[in-house]
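Risk register update: the risk of archive-format incompatibility is retired. Evidence:
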Amino acid sequence: MEEYLMETPSINYRNPLIQDKVQELMNQSEDDLDYIKRGFIFVRDEIPHSWDIKTDVVSKTASEVLENKTGICWTKSCLLAALLRANQIPAGISYQLLTRADDASEGYMIHALNTVYLKDLNKWIRLDAWGNKENINAYFSLDEERLAYTIRSELGEIDYHDNHSDLDERLINILNECESIFEISTDFEF
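Archived output:
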């Protein structure tokens, strides 16, 4: 469980901006479960996905997402993990391979979401803080996953049902090489 509590360069929860947000969320929360839900809702609703608002800002770490007030799913998942880990709640990252369009004609993209360990229930759940909009309604649920995307295996989409302690190194490299969010490409085997 220790690896899901560690600080990493991408999940930099000791950053003062993140620590301030952690304190704010803790002050509003009744218990750990309430804190998790508030952290999830904050990242989902208050941090817009960069593609959705058509900004070219590249947030590369959890603290940059908070500072820039935007990020793609890869780094929004880092922010949620940072908020949770800073409060000693184990959190990780899971991936899905999704089509870029309503079919496979435009290729695929890697989507990141979070895994969270609920100590009192002794189980992991997955939360997807992409951001709700038309056709996307992800929400906090302990009983059933309510993620941003439903996998369409007939189009080659894959839900890896994995659990990583940090953002994938290939994604970190892509972020570090881009000056604009619109340069991002995930044309590699995941």
